[in-house]
């Protein structure tokens, strides 16, 4: 059952999403060769609590940490450890926060120092596919329209689209209806209505779409050992159009990056 949100609830959800956005921004300046994942995880936990929120993933289904920390061939659900980051790594960081009874949940894949060209392209295309998908989250469309758009975009670049894990509705629960797969057929699935909030999150592999899971019961990694990328935004459907609740702007501020990629998904300011 889809839980449609009121305007007031969407504002609370924006607050929760921004707790995560600021946390990813804080981490952006810390992610470099030699950085210790468990230390960054602790920093993230404290930073979330300082903002009057609690970590959304810590203890959820018994997950042991604040961050999902998934380097290189790990797709999602990796567990932070003492293995320092290395030059040329990519690290997918997924973070959740619970504030005022609502969840924020979003993710970014960072390059550690200089990464090679194929990896750079994987990150670029995966992030672009997120916006290609968000653009289809509009009134009149269905789950399959977002799904198809992401799949088509990534497969046209020769990448593998992970199927076993999907985006989702977001609200008082971390995972609400509908499921938001990154593959599918146009015109299929649940219809979008105003007041829906979803987490759209392409998980894209450089090689095969096949995955495996480590014995820790959490970590998902690519079956062929090639890198994977994961970008996620929290998006509300308002007045028929997608509006971002989360932002990568704190990350870009930390990294000195200029981007207007989010502009089309912001509410137009009225005078
Ligand atoms: Mg997430
Ligand atoms: Mg999610």
Summarize the entry for a quick read.
The chain is an alpha+beta fold.
The number of distinct β-strands equals: 15
Assembly state of the chains shown: single chain
Determine the structural class based on helices, strands and strand pairing: alpha+beta
The ordered H/E elements are HHEEEEEHHEEEEEEEEEEH
What count of structural domains? 1
- Which whole number gives the mean pLDDT? 97
Q: Identify the CATH class.
A: Alpha Beta
**Rg over C-alpha atoms, rounded to the nearest angstrom:** 17 Å
Which architecture does the CATH hierarchy give at level 2?
Alpha-Beta Complex
Instruction: State the helical fraction.
Output: 25-40%
Strand order of the largest sheet: 8-7-9-14-15
The percentage of residues in β strands lies in 15-25%
